[in-house]
Amino acid sequence: MPTPTKGPRLGGSPSHEKMMLQNLSASLFEHRSITTTVTKAKRLRPYAERLITIAKKGDLAARRKVVGQLSAKNSTNQAIVHELFTVIAPAMAEREGGYTRITKIGNRKGDNAPMAVIELVMEPVSPKQAVVKEAEQAAAAQVEEAPVEEEPVEEAPVEEAAAEEPTAEETTEETSEETEDK
């Protein structure tokens, strides 16, 4: 998680902020989308994305690390960890980052706090991104194989091209000669 901002945390002490982020991320993984304040959503994004990145590894050490960060001491959170490793992480396997999306939805009616929806991006990576990735891999493979010798490009000499087309001065001289002959 990036270094926290100076001043008061999300509602009090650093330990309270840590518990809030754990609960918000558990709710995010359980429901795939939650509505919260913009500030909490922005603080939740790096925390949740790091958990998904760890879950993409899929080994026992990664599972234990996620369990420790989600405070999965009860059966509900253990089910959420299981879902994170079996459903969410495989769906995000092709995605290199940007697992969450924050959409601002206006202000809350009671206290006018700016609200946002933070959701998991479960759509597959777009075909355009896949094509770009394949092109980069092909270019890297081509560079590794052997450097291809380039044939020199034959260009028409400038003098020959100038001899074929009359210049503006020559055309004015020819027209002035034609008018004198008449």
Quickly describe the structure:
58% of the residues lie in helices and 11% in strands. It is mainly α and 182 residues long. Helix 2 packs antiparallel against helix 3 (60-70) and helix 3 crosses helix 4 (75-91).
Q: What would your notes on this structure say?
A:
With 182 residues, the chain is mainly alpha-helical. Helices cover 58% and strands 11% of the residues. The protein has helices at residues 14-31, 38-57, 60-70, 75-91, 127-145, 158-164, 168-181, and strands at 33-37, 100-107, 114-120. Strands 1-3-2 form a three-stranded antiparallel sheet. The longest helix has 20 residues, at 38-57. The relative contact order is 0.10.
Helices and strands in order, then pairings?
Layout: H1 14-31, E1 33-37, H2 38-57, H3 60-70, H4 75-91, E2 100-107, E3 114-120, H5 127-145, H6 158-164, H7 168-181
Antiparallel strand pairs: 1-3, 2-3
Helix pairs in contact: 1-2, 2-3, 2-4, 3-4
Can you count the beta strands? 3
Helix proportion range: 55-70%
**SS strand fraction:** 5-15%
- Class based on secondary structure composition and strand pairing: mainly alpha
**How many separate helices?**
7
Order of helices and strands: HEHHHEEHHH
**Main sheet attributes: strand count, strand direction, barrel closure:** 3 strands, antiparallel
Key features of this structure:
182 residues; mainly alpha; 11% strand; elongated
